Amino acid sequence: MKSFLIMKFGGTSVGNAQRMKNVAKLITNETPKIVVLSAMSGTTNSLVEIAEYLYKKNHDTANELIFQLENKYRNVCNELFSTNEYKNLALETISNHFDDMRKFIIDVFTTLEEKSILAKGEILSTTLFYYYLLENNFDSVLLSALNFMRIDKSDEPDFYYIKENLQREINLYPDKNLFITQGYICRNAFGEIDNLKRGGSDFSASLIGAALRSNEIEIWTDIDGFHNNDPRFVQKTHSISELSFDEAAELAYFGAKILHPSTVLPAKAANIPVRLKNTMNPKAAGTLITNNSLNTDEIKAVAAKDGIVAIKIKSGRMLLAYGFLRKIFETFERFQTPIDMVTTSEIAVSLTIDNDQYLEKIVEELRQYGTVAVDKNQTIICVVGNFAGNKTGMALKVFEALRNIPIRMISYGGSENNISILIDSQEKIRSLQALNEHLF
Ligand code: ADP
Ligand code: ASP
Ligand code: MG
User: Fold this and answer.
1) What's the half-sphere exposure (Cβ side, CA atoms, 13 Å) at 393?
2) Residues 211 and 357 reside in one and the same domain
């Protein structure tokens, strides 16, 4: 079996005709590769909006948005192609997909139709890019991710299915070295079109890399790798040259948008390095994520995750009792709600969740164990670095920086590479900025 390099290009990297042409320049060498593309930037948001109007039966607005998006794609075609042959092929594809979308204006609209609409972004970007490659004499194959990418009944990737079917697809083309496919989209356990959730193209790339045991997974985006803080809220951030899988996973899970939180798992399990690169500045080194932890003394990075709900259960019965925490945790398990942070005292326990779908039911059940207080609009700040148990002064550094911020919860010692701090979301930007000034 050939060894493939996986190259995933995100929305901005394929965001207009010129950027697609730039991506083509990055994939010209002979190395066998699988190129995974996101939808062009803005497209998935537009498709989500169209679906919302279709749900609401606001057909006029949906129709208008479909028209606008189709026009945008037609304009991209005019810029991307230099021959009528490929331009016409691409325009025909565009018409087919947008006409298909218009069918949902009269038909019933359920999650099934919604997911089929959401899949169109990646299908369009890969098809246009593939035609562009053909026009420019690249010898490539367009693989439909719907033929191999699959999730099971719990919405988890069905790794063996993915591996077998992807191998089978690739084996059909023994002489080809360049494959283009869609990120994000998949089929579910019922064979219906589905997706890996927003930002999921990174996850696709990692699953594909692990399935093919590739040498490296490259995630090409619009910034030169993982930064030490969120560049959307903080100035003067810098790129981090190396991270361990665990460090990257914590940062991605706690809000660093550059990587879909599940991306690290398949790569770590198969021990495949993940490299983050900047399409706008390909020479920049970016970030290399591997199994080697660099155990430096520094604090490496900070991230923040919004939309957190804190729940406190207070009870005298907890004093010197055992089994209390089990009952609390079982409540969350019954409602399939993951817990992120936990802190306990002898008479109370506080914990956080980010999925509030069953919040009311959970709170109702918890009331039998004590008084329950709920705080919404909370943010977890995650600080990643070397917080080994034998080190001194690390917590001081972090809390010195946050001395003017009211703190709701602290979790230290859960892992050696992270401190999590819960604050009110209103304090997020101030906290990120204060940490940037004091830690780096
Ligand atoms: P793509 O469309 O290529 O997947 P995303 O928008 O999903 O790109 O992710 C890249 C963006 O993530 C950057 O433009 C940046 O604004 C944001 N971001 C948030 N936190 C970080 C971080 N710690 N390091 C780098 N980028 C970050
Ligand atoms: N296009 C999808 C999204 O915008 C997936 C991705 O870009 O990773 O969420
Ligand atoms: Mg992304």
Assistant:
1) 4
2) no
- Joined together, the tokens standing for residue 220 give 């090409």
Residue 218 CA: distances (Å) to CA of 148, 274, 293, 336, 417: 20, 6, 19, 33, 24
Q: 134 and 11, same structural domain? A: yes
- Ligand 2 within 6 A of 261 CB? no
Residue that terminates a domain, selected from 166, 186, 215: 215
Q: Is residue 270 one of the residues assigned to a domain?
A: no
User: Residue 360 phi/psi, 5° resolution?
Assistant: -60, -45
Of the ligands numbered here, which is closest to the C-alpha atom of 251? 1
Going residue by residue through the chain, which has 440 residues, state the pLDDT in tens, using 9 for 90 and above.
789 999 999 999 999 999 999 999 999 988 999 999 999 999 999 999 999 999 999 999 999 999 999 999 999 999 999 999 999 999 999 999 999 999 988 878 999 999 999 999 999 999 999 999 999 999 999 999 999 999 999 999 999 999 999 999 999 999 999 999 999 999 999 999 999 999 999 999 999 999 999 999 999 999 999 999 999 999 999 999 999 999 999 999 999 999 999 999 999 999 999 999 999 999 999 999 998 866 677 899 999 999 999 999 998 776 667 888 899 999 999 999 999 999 998 889 999 999 999 999 999 999 999 999 999 999 999 999 988 888 888 899 999 999 999 999 999 988 888 999 999 999 999 999 999 999 99
Whether residues 173 and 308 share a domain: the answer is no
Query: Is 15's C-beta closer than 6 angstroms to any atom of ligand 2?
Result: no
User: Would you say the CB of residue 119 lies under 6 angstroms from ligand 2?
Assistant: no
Query: In total, how many domains does the chain have?
Result: 2
Report if residue 234 sits inside a domain.
no
The verdict on 168 and 317 lying in the same domain is no
The ligand placed nearest to the CA atom of residue 260 is 3
CA of 405 to the centre of ligand 3 (A): 30
Tell me the CATH number at 186.
3.40.1160.10
- Which residue from 46, 184, 221 has its CB within 8 A of the most atoms of ligand 2, so it is best to mutate? 184
Do both 211 and 342 map to the same domain? no
How far, in Å, is the centroid of ligand 3 from the Cα of 172? 30
Q: Which domain does 28 fall in, by range?
A: 5-215
Residue 184 lies in a domain: yes
Residue 351 within any structural domain of the chain: yes
Instruction: Indicate which residue's Cα is closest to atom 9 of ligand 2.
Output: 198
Backbone angles phi, psi at 140, to 5 degrees: -135, 165
Residue 50 near residue 21, CB atoms below 8 Å: no
- Give the global pTM: 0.95
Q: Closest Cα partner for 77 from 25, 34, 135? A: 135
